[in-house]
Specification:
With 292 residues, this protein is of the alpha/beta class. The chain has helices spanning 38-48, 63-69, 73-81, 85-92, 112-118, 120-123, 144-155, 215-221, 233-240, 261-273, 279-291; strands spanning 7-11, 32-33, 36-37, 53-58, 100-105, 128-131, 135-138, 158-164, 174-178, 185-193, 204-212, 246-250, 254-257. The chain has eleven helices and 13 strands. The structure holds 1-O-phosphono-alpha-D-glucopyranose.
Length: 292
């Protein structure tokens, strides 16, 4: 790999059953942290890293995601007429100029690896990013994907974000075994999807940011179903290890696992407390609630 990444894939076709009944009509990627949907954080991170083509892998239940990135003529016109410039900019610049959104369909929920494979015709033969919007990773002015894109450009390797998790949680993640870390990076020697804590090669977990060599598509095309009967991205990465360097990257930043109730609550609390306008009021009501 010699290029800077330009394309980012967002697999957003999941059912989001953990957040039912809300997710009956609201895709989980549209769940708000105060007033910005989860997907916006991931999109901003990809754009900050240098991506100008955002590929959403979606399905027939996720029109709200496409609508969100579409132009809202009527609303924009109304806001313009009533002089609401700040609100108008918020609506208009969910995507900055020069960034395009492309939607591809994943007709059947066959797994994360399959979702990534659906993006192949748009990605073509260049390195690309995958961002799982459930994992909100916050690091002001130097997002996790930007850090990883710099590392990928310098090393020409695929790069995967990792974080230590408690050993009893290995069954929820892809888990890696690596060489010794030099600063934030280490070469991955093995990767396994959702191992039982008793057999996990470490407690170093893959979190939802990947920069991948396009060779991954060839591997995904012939991959049999893995854990949970799904086409697993982790299994394709395991095959990639034999032909290409893949680095684990300990990013700087805080991850919120917004695919779980408690992670979503944690993110909302954190963003409320650090919010420019709402922070003080949020602190007061939280303090009151704790004192009761
Ligand atoms: C997916 C991946 C897993 C990774 C996780 C990070 O799992 O398959 O390897 O550790 O995302 O969030 P999921 O959470 O979709 O079950």
């Amino acid at each position: 790999m010699t290029q800077r990444i330009r394309k980012a894939v967002f697999p957003v076709a999941g059912l989001g059953t953990r957040f039912l009944p809300a997710t009956k009509t609201v895709p989980k990627e549209m769940m708000p942290i105060i007033d910005r949907p989860l997907i916006q954080y991931a999109v901003d991170e990809a754009i900050e890293a240098g991506c100008d083509t955002l590929i959403f892998v979606t399905n027939r239940y996720k029109h709200a995601v496409a609508d969100y990135f579409d132009k809202a003529y009527e609303l924009e016109h109304k806001l313009e007429r009533s002089g609401k410039k700040a609100q108008l900019d918020l609506v208009r610049y969910v995507l900055p100029e020069g960034v395009r959104a492309v939607f591809v369909t994943q007709a059947e929920a066959l797994g994360l690896g399959h979702a990534v494979l659906c993006a192949k015709p748009v990605v073509g033969d260049e390195p690309f990013a995958v961002l799982l919007p459930d994992d909100l990773i916050w690091n002001r002015d130097n997002g996790a994907l930007k850090q990883m894109a710099d590392a990928a450009e310098a090393s020409k390797a695929s790069v995967i974000a990792v974080e230590d998790v408690p050993r009893e949680k290995t069954g929820s993640y892809g888990i890696v075994a690596t060489d010794a870390f030099a600063h934030r990076e280490a070469r991955i020697r093995a990767i396994v999807e959702k191992p039982d804590p008793a057999v996990a090669p470490s407690n170093l977990a893959v979190v939802g940011r990947y920069i991948l060599n396009p060779g991954i598509f060839r591997l995904l095309e012939t991959l049999p179903p893995g854990a949970g009967g799904e086409i697993q991205l982790t299994d394709a990465i395991a095959a990639l290890l034999a032909e290409d360097a893949v680095l684990a990257y300990r990013f700087e930043g805080k991850r919120f696992d917004c695919g779980t109730h408690i992670g979503l609550i944690e993110a909302i609390v954190e963003f409320a407390l650090t919010h420019d306008n709402l922070g003080e009021a949020a602190r007061t009501i939280m303090q009151k609630a704790l004192d009761r």
